[in-house]
Structures are given as C-alpha cells and as structure tokens.
Amino acid sequence: MSFAQTTRPHAGAPRLLTLALAASTLALTLAGCAVGPDYKRPAVTVPASYKEASKDAAADGWKVAQPADQADRGAWWTIYNDPQLDALQDKLNQSNQTVAQYAAAYRQARALVSEARAAYFPVISASAGATRQGASSHVSSSSSSGTLNSTTNSFTVGLDATWEPDLWGKVSRTVSSERAGQQGAAADLANARLSAQGTLAQTWFSLRSLDATQKLLDDTVVAYTRSLQLTQNQYAQGVAARSDVIQAQTQLQSAQAAAIDNGVARAQDEHAIAVLIGEPASSFSIPPSPLDATPPAVPAQLPSALLERRPDIASAERKAAAANEQIGVAIAAFFPTLTLSATGGFQSSVLSQLLQAPSRVWTVGPELAATLFDAGLRQAQTDAARAAYDQQVAVYRQTVLAAFQDVEDNLAQEIVVQQAAVNSARQALDIILNQYKAGTVGYVSVLTAQTTAFTAEQKLANIAGQRMVSSVGLVKALGGGWDASQMNRERGDVAAPAPQTVAQKPDVTQK
C-alpha cells in the first residue's frame, strides 16, 4: 500500500508531512531488528601439542625453538641469512603476478563493502526538463472554416529522494557479509604472498641442494674415471678380466647420465624461480653454489595459536562468517519493506515564472510492500544460504586439519644416522680399493662398495636439502610472520607489474 500526495501547497500538506515523519521515526526505531543467526566461530578440535615436536626437539642437527625465542617478522626468510635469497624475495614482492591478482581481488572486495554501505543512505537525484507540445484542430462556422494550431510549453525542475530503512537488518547483514569477505580477501592475499615466498625459498634451497648433488656427481665421475683407468691397467697386465673393464665403463656412464639428469632438474628449478619473481626464464640464470646452510631454530607456536597465525585458516573462517550473514539476508526477504520517498520542484508553462511559488509541486509518502506468494522461492533461498554456510564451516575445519598435518609433516627430520652411514661407506670403500689393488678381492666388490658409498652420499645430500626445504615449510606452515590482526591493516596496493620489454631487460644474473 502507499500514501502519497502530489499537489500545490494547501492546508492538508502538514498532515501528510506528519505522516511521513511518523513513518520515518518508526523505521528508525525498527532499524536495529536484524533477523537471522548471529555468527559464532565454528568449533574445531585443537591438539594440545605437536606429536613430532617432542621427537625432533631432542635430535641432533634439528631443534624447534621455544615460542618466545624469536619475535614475529614480516620478512621471515631473513632468518636464513642468505643475501641472494633476500634479493629474490624483494623481486617477488614487487613483481609476482599471482600476488598482484589477489591484491586486485582484495581491492574489489573492499569496494563491495562501500557499495553495500551505500544502501544505508537515501538516493537523491535531480532533474530538469523542457517540452513543447503542438496540436491542430479544425474550426468551421457559417462565415468561414479552417485549421487552428496551438502550442503548449512545459518547464520542470525537481529533486527526488528515496530511502528504504533497514527494518530487518538486510543492509547490515549485507555489509557484515561484505566486510567479512574483504577480510577473507585480505587473508587470501596474505596466503598467496606467503605461499609464493615459501615456494621461492623452497625452490631456492632445492636448487642449491642440486648444486651440491652436482658436485658429488662430478666428483663421482672423476673417481669412476680413475677406477676405469685402474681396471684397464689391471686388464692390460692380465690381472683383471675384460668384464671388469666393461662394468667400470658402465658405472662411469651411469654416473655421467645422472649428472645430466641432475642438470635438467636444476634448470627446471631455475626456471621456476624466474616465474616467481616475474622475469622471463630465458634470460634468467643463477651461478652454481653447493648448499652449505643448516636449518635455523624455528619458533613452533602452540597448536591453538595456529588458528590466528595461518592466513588460509583466517580466510576460511571469514568466508564462513560471510556465509552466515547471507542467511540473515535471505530471511529478511520474508518481511515487508518500507520505502520513504519525496519529490519537490517547480513546473510551469512559462519559463520566467518557473521558480515562483505558484509553480511549486511536491510529493511525499511512505510505501509498504510485501510478497504474498512466491511459490517457495524465499524458503529455497534461505535453505541454500544455510547449506552454503555449512559448506564453508566444513572448508574451515578441513583447512585447520590440513594445517596441523602441514606442521607435523615439516617437523619430522633425519640427518645424524645418515651421516654415520656415509662415513662407514667411505671407510669400506677405501679398504676394498686397497684390497683390489693388492689382488685379494674381485672388481665386483669394488663396484658394490662404490655404489653403496655413492648412494649414501647422495641420500645425505638429499636429506640436507630436504631439511632446508622442510624448514621453510615449517615457517610457512606456522604462518610466517603473519597474524589475523593484519587483515584489517591490508591495503592491497600491489599493482599488476608491467611486462618487461627488451629495452628494459635487467641484469638478472644473481651474483
């Protein structure tokens, strides 16, 4: 139903203005009645401690620091004291395209909050117009007949105002949903940045581990070459069989092939780093340098703190909050809406008299509207909103479980036993080589000892690299230097970087 009046001023105007004022007062009184469920963070099961932490805290070569040992850092990768890694991370923060994508998504989410808030306020518009209308009529009389032409001018100037009070909290629920979406987008941006930074650091240490493996393979090729020469000399003296020479050649060629495969894997890591820092892989190179770093002490917060320190957990929780608010938006559709509108202006057929009092016109009145039948549409929308919330709760809980698994996986380490195995294999190889030179053992024993020693050293190099990769994974799994309070401080000012031209091509070789 609606109540409105369009007229020139008369004695009844005050009563209509009073009606509109009363409707506005009632609307403001009811505006705080938000329907729908209030949000509470979904409950999750949090363990008291990490299972692997107690195992690794006592192991040599790996120690998890106490939570108070180090303060939160934004540039968490600086704990590795690697200037080249620091320089690469700086380039990533400026030029990574994925981070720029999430930054733009955050700015979009922030704009949606402003868009939702606009519904709190009335919409005011202005208009002005002029029309000229003509008509012709036939006139006849006893003395004459003809056509009479007449024209009419109309000039209007007016203001329109429309406001729909938030009686049932639809607007406030929408704003809360969009605000939670903005915070979720901020956490998504932080997670994308942390993920890219962690991937870069892990790829960097993987590349350095491959450099160490390459050095091992190069040394192995040299050692196998000497063994082949020794076997050939033994064969020339009639001490060794031809099959020993062929076995030595096969062993050398296998090591050479492994060195080539290792070089291919290193090139792939190098290309991946180039993409992460936003540079063409074809013009990017990193000089070889074997890994010589050891994992630093990493603060392992209590499992309960993980809920505030992981941006992916924060993002999932904020998405659940946004979905909860959408339930209230859907329920609000069951209630009537009140629209308050008013127009005012001037209308006259003479332009010079347009802004005079006799030309004034106005309209004011509330309108109450409600849907009486929709074939179950609103109920279906409410059910869909509840199901969407349940889905986001499940996503949140699964994200928490995956986070705990991530931490546990990166806490498990081994190094001491493998180092002992390498030492034993080296000693055995030296003994057997001396025995072979003395003619007391066959070449098969040498092959076996060399293979055992090489396998042990290769595994040691892999474990050393994996320790560094897992160290980065642990920092990443614990949220880096991020916490949930940063969601409200995010600005999303990372712009999509411009592609580099040939003229702008920088010196990307790391030194």
Structure description:
With about 500 residues, the chain is of the alpha+beta class. The chain has one domain (about 30-35, about 65-335, about 370-490): Outer membrane efflux proteins (OEP), CATH 1.20.1600. It is built from eleven helices and seven strands. The strands form two sheets. Strands 1-7-6-4-3 form a five-stranded antiparallel beta sheet, covered by helices on one side. It has a two-stranded parallel ribbon with strand order 2-5. Helix 4 (about 95-115) runs antiparallel to helix 5 (about 170-235) and helix 5 runs antiparallel to helix 11 (about 445-475). The relative contact order is 0.18.
Radius of gyration: 39 Å
CATH superfamily: Outer membrane efflux proteins (OEP)
β content, as a range?
A: 5-15%
Q: With helices defined by DSSP (H or I, 4 residues minimum), what is the helix count?
A: 11
What CATH calls the topology is Outer membrane efflux proteins (OEP)
Identify the CATH architecture: Up-down Bundle
Q: For the largest beta sheet, what order do the strands appear in spatially?
A: 1-7-6-4-3
Estimate the global geometry from the Cα principal axes: elongated
- Assign the structural class, choosing from mainly alpha, mainly beta, alpha/beta, alpha+beta, or little secondary structure: alpha+beta
String of helices and strands = EHHEHHEEHHEHHEEHHH
